[in-house]
Amino acid sequence: MKQKRLPPAVSEGLASGATFVVASNQRQAAVRAAWAGEQRAAGRKLWGTPRILTFTQFAETRLGEQWAAANLPDRLLAPGAEWTLLRELRRAAGGSGEARALLASIRTIRDWRFPRSRGALGGSAEGDLLLEAMSALEKQGRELGRGPLADWLGELEPVPGDLLSAGLAALPTAQRETLQRLGARAVGNSAATAAVAVAVANAHDDEHEIELIAGWCRAQLEQDPDRRLLIVDAKLRQRRRQYERALSQTLSPSEWVANRARAFSRYFSIEGGQPLTDFPLIAHALMSLRLLTGSLRFDELLLWLRMPFIDQRDVFAGTVVEAILRDGHRLEYGAHALAAFLERTPVEPARALAARLQNATTLLGGERRSASDWAPQVLAALRALGWHGSRVLRSDEQQTAARWYSLLDEYSALNAWLPRGSAADAVATLVDLARERSFDPASVATPVTLTESHDDPVVRYDAIWIAGLDAAQWPPPSRPDVFIPLRLQVAAGMPAASAAGQSRRARASLEAWRAATNSLVCSWAQLDAGAHRTPSPLLSRIPGQIAYAPAAVTLPLAERLRKPQLETLEDVHGVAVDTSVAVRGGVKPLTLQAECGFHAYGEMRLGAGPLEEPAPGIDARDRGMMLHKALELIWLKLQNRFRLEATDEQVRKPTIHQAVEAAVVFVFRGFVPPELQPSVEREMHRIERLIEKLLKRELSRPNFDVDRLEALREVNIAGGTFVVRIDRIDILEGGGCAILDYKAGAPRALRWDPDGIRDPQLLTYLLAERGRDVQALANVWLTRGQVRYIGKAARPRLLPGVNGLPGMSPAKVPPAEIDAAWQGELENWLQSLQLLAARYLAGEAPVQPAPDVCRNCHLTVLCRRVELTEADLAGTDLGAEVP
After folding, report:
1. Torsion region of 13: left, alpha or beta (phi above 0 gives left; psi -120 to 50 gives alpha)
2. Contact 430, 407 (CB under 8 A)
3. What pLDDT does 123 receive?
4. DSSP tag of 675
5. What's the mean pLDDT in 832-861?
6. Residue 877 pLDDT more than 50?
7. SS3 sequence, 254-299?
8. Count of alpha carbons within 13 Å of 584, Cβ hemisphere only?
């Protein structure tokens, strides 16, 4: 017959109607589940609810019964009242974090019955602050005729029937002495711990440790699905997501390949809950309220749009709104700014969202109100916005929504402790309350339970695994309260106050674990992000321990789904470009093809471009357009009078200013958004200074004439027609012309190597002007207050800073020989351009990037180059790269 999970004394006591007090909510849930299992095993379908309570629940319930019997009002402080008062008291200093720490210290003083005199607690800044906070709480309690639970423990009367307790030694002084006064009888597991063998598992790192635990759970349940397992990990909050992934993929991998959302696991449950802010439904509600009363960052706004808690008639409405926002310039939005922005768009879903935002913000406007007045207004604003949508919520979402309504009720009950405030104040308080409260939706009984509590399990388990038992974590380091003198904490016997106390507590936990099971596994991990760990010294002192050996190696789900054999496929050719029409993109396809064939094909042919990201100030493309347009206009004005007017400062400066002003009008179509006006003014000054420097540099050149500006050309390269626009063509003194292209950004040399070209733009312009005597090609870099000419020229001094052909000095080499060498270089470069264009037009898309290209590429997920390279380095033959 299967051994009962509850100690006999507990089973008998609960059957007779006894009250059972346990140390924590985790142990309460475990005892209730074990009791329900015993009732079902006895064939019962209905049974009375057992009185299994934490000490706080027990004391509050008993006081309520006593006061009701004596016809007295409830005199306990409302939940969150003390935290709220301290938060208001320290709002201008430490805020919510300091209020939380102060409240924990005050409760510690009450629970451990420390003296409250200034002589005991004062004498330091921390102690004085603590006394000030305690005085404020006591004053308010007297005014309201209410007090915290610790003030009423002396009034507790014995309960009818038996009173049982477990984990009595772990309780603070006030609670332990109260239970002893009421005649509580301590119960627990009485198994002999000497006969329990302890297996010690040595994992490589934290991830490997969790994998071992998941494999252990699977092996245990494969032997007997009715087994009950307990996993104890003090770092469960930090590693919760890792446990959820590993256990679900190991115990129920079908959840990860199903076409529906994952619900509660039928195999494991995690005790302790999570902060309310971690639940998507509540997180969306809080983000909505922050948007309505303040602002959201751009990334928060995208998350808000993507969450499925606002109704949209168009399933792509959120995507449409996101695309509109990505074209904007704001990094954060408030409700009014967002509504105004969306109202200017012709897209119906965006305008509908703007209308809902306006309606919701109206409900949260007006005068300052009390908490009880703001609570219904907050809920009405959310509903006006469309939260939480009209779809049917899952069971866990329904429970989460109900918990949100309870949180609003808690906030509403804090009228006496909160001053009248604005809607933003109300939302800030709700956010802080949500962070303070933990919640765990009810789920079905599961064979595997995870807990972070090291308290006595009380319930017996078929097997227990204790994780994270390295020397740094177990026994845990001392964590004394920073506001209470250390000597008081040590004298009171607080386990967390000293290393000796933590060591005693760790030994007691080990004995409790061994008494609660016949199979105990303890584990530790060797590495922590590269840092080496050592096992806890308590592990080495366990007599009769054995090394843990996993029953079988359990592969992660991804490795189980992946097929080790791949077909080798050479697929580097896409669809050829249709050359009957002009090639889309100008010179950009050739530039990308020179960097990586797959990049060019993915971005230009498949449209796999990067998502737009809003940036503060002016968009880089608009800045480039302003600069180019201003330069075009200035040369149109100075074209035939450059030498005369560029040297006259009284003429030059107004001419530059007028050209830049006209460029702004052209780029922004006559309307500069108010939020961009400061940036536009700064950019205008920057461009004016750059043009000033450019004109001065141009004056140092030999005489020239500007022949063409923004010249539109069609050029045939390798059978394809490319449409290009040449920034400027100059007629040089002595014959020939120069092709110039304006650039912003960090200057770099032209990359025209013998084995290939990386910068085909000037060569495309050269081919477009074939038939003319082109003597120089250069990029004119205007950036960081400097002007530089970088390019190639047949002879030196044709352009400032551009040298001639190496070894072809005009003083030593005849002009005819220089011209022949220059024409030879041009032909070589153009031949490389033809080959590059031919590869692009043919659809060649090999994953063969040039050096330093992958660092800034957004297509590495598609080309899989990094993944395949790592596989090659590991010696795994995964076949050819597949674009």
Report:
1. alpha
2. yes
3. 76
4. G
5. 89
6. no
7. HHHCCCCCCCCCCCEEECCCEEHHHCHHHHHHHHHHHHHHCCEEHH
8. 9
Query: Residue 793: left if φ>0, alpha if ψ -120 to 50, beta else—which one?
Result: beta
- CA-wise closest residue to 750 among 630, 813, 816, 832: 832
H/E element holding 573? none
Distance CA(665)–CA(424), nearest Å, equals 39
The arithmetic mean of pLDDT across residues 848-871, rounded, is 77
Query: Which run of H or E residues covers position 615?
Result: none
Q: Are strands 163-165 and 51-54 parallel, antiparallel or unpaired?
A: unpaired
Structure tokens given for 537: 């010294």
Of the candidates 879, 876, 846, 878, the one whose C-alpha atom is nearest the C-alpha of residue 863 is 846
Backbone angles phi, psi at 54, to 5 degrees: -75, 170
**Strand order, beta sheet including 774-783:** 704-717, 720-732, 737-743, 774-783, 786-793
Beta strands in 64-191 (DSSP E): 163-165, 185-186
Q: What is the pLDDT at residue 631?
A: 93
Type and span of the H or E element at 366: none
Under a CB-based contact definition with an 8 Å cutoff, are residues 747 and 785 in contact? no
Q: Read off the pLDDT of residues 177-186 as tens digits, 9 standing for 90 and up.
A: 999 999 999 8
pLDDT of 866: 67
Nearest of 355, 356, 353, 362 to residue 293 by alpha carbon: 362
CA angle at residue 697 from 691 to 700, to 5 degrees?
A: 150
Contact call for residues 430 and 375 (beta carbons, < 8 A): no
E strand or H helix at 444? none
The count of residues in the chain is 883
Nearest to 350 by CA among 375, 364, 333, 331: 333
Please enumerate in sequence order all residues whose Cβ is within 8 A of that of 553, keeping only pairs 6 or more positions apart, or say none: 215
The answer, yes or no, to whether residue 555 has pLDDT greater than 70, is no
Q: Is residue 878's pLDDT more than 80?
A: no
pLDDT at 609: 84
- DSSP code of residue 252: -
Residue 171's alpha-carbon distances to 54, 187, 232, 858, in angstroms, are 11, 14, 20, 56
**β-bridge pairing 527-528 and 531-532:** antiparallel
Q: What is d(CA 53, CA 762) in angstroms, rounded to the nearest whole number?
A: 80
Contact 220, 187 (CB under 8 A): no
H or E element at residue 188: none
Please say whether the beta carbons of 780 and 741 come within 8 A: yes
Best CA proximity match to 370, nearest among 429, 427, 415, 430? 415
Nearest to 738 by CA among 747, 727, 722: 727
Biggest CA–CA distance in the chain, Å, is 119
Question: Are β-strands 229-233 and 448-451 bridged in parallel, bridged antiparallel, or unpaired?
Answer: parallel
DSSP 601: I
Q: Name residues whose C-beta falls within 8 Å of residue 136's C-beta, 6 or more positions apart in sequence.
A: 85, 86, 89
The CA distance from 322 to 664, in Å, is: 27
Distances (CA, A) of 509 to 45, 180, 515: 35, 22, 10
Specify the 3-state DSSP secondary structure of 585: coil
DSSP H helices in 307-459? 317-326, 335-343, 348-363, 371-385, 395-412, 423-436
The answer to whether 189 and 516 have CB atoms below 8 angstroms apart is yes
Tokens of 804: 């001639």
What is the arithmetic mean of pLDDT over 572-597? 93
Give me the residues paired with residue 467 across strands.
233
Q: How many CA atoms lie within 13 A of 744 on its CB side?
A: 14
pLDDT for position 785: 84
Distance separating alpha carbons of residues 250 and 210, to the nearest angstrom: 11
Q: What is the pLDDT of residues 391-404, one digit of tens each?
A: 888 888 899 999 99
Instruction: Identify which of 661, 670, 666 has the alpha carbon closest to the alpha carbon of residue 622.
Output: 666
Contact 740, 728 (CB under 8 A): yes
